[in-house]
Amino acid sequence: MVKLTEVEDEHFTSEKPTPTQKDSLITSDNEEDDDFTDTESEISVESAAEIESENLYERIIALKDIIPPHSRRRIAGTVTGITDFTKSTFSFSGKALWVISTSAFLLGVPWALAFAEEEQYAQMEKEQGMMKGANEMLTPGVDAAAAALGGIQEKQSQPAL
Q: Residues annotated as region Disordered (predicted)?
């Protein structure tokens, strides 16, 4: 715990003489000079040097004594809870993204290749059907005669039992 002690400035402890009418006629320049030199003490010079050497982080840390302990605990608990929730959310999201992407590669790529191959076979059959239709249009009846001749030739080439 910090113990505070009051340090009195010598300017306030010395007794001031009561002003007279003659003193009031003195120019204000002398009074300003006296006041300026009197208010500047060793303590104020040292504290100014301390303030200049402090950085922002040290000043913020020093402010924690202003907030009561129960409020500090509540604020610290809230910040810790939010931080933990954020970390766990990012961790879960990263793991879920890893599972989804590896599953897509292991299952999706082979399926896509098989689907493309099947489409290629369907396209080839379609092209062959179009070529067969074009051949029938150019020479009608040739395929029917060739099929009939092929059937006769097959029967002739089979051995008799």
A: 1-41
Distance CA 44, CA 9 (A): 10
75 CB contacts (<8 Å, ≥6 apart)? 67
Half-sphere exposure of 143 (CA within 13 A, CB side): 10
Closest Cα to residue 39, out of 11, 79, 74?
11
Reported as a single tens digit per residue, the pLDDT across 40-94 is: 555 555 555 566 778 888 888 888 888 888 998 999 999 999 999 999 999 999 9
Q: Domain spans of the chain? A: 48-141
Q: Are 111 and 104 in contact (CB under 8 A)?
A: no
Per DSSP, the three-state class of 158 is coil
Both tokens of residue 118?
């099947």
Residue 158 is encoded by which pair of tokens? 């089979």
Q: Find the angle CA(19)-CA(39)-CA(37) to the nearest 5 degrees.
A: 80
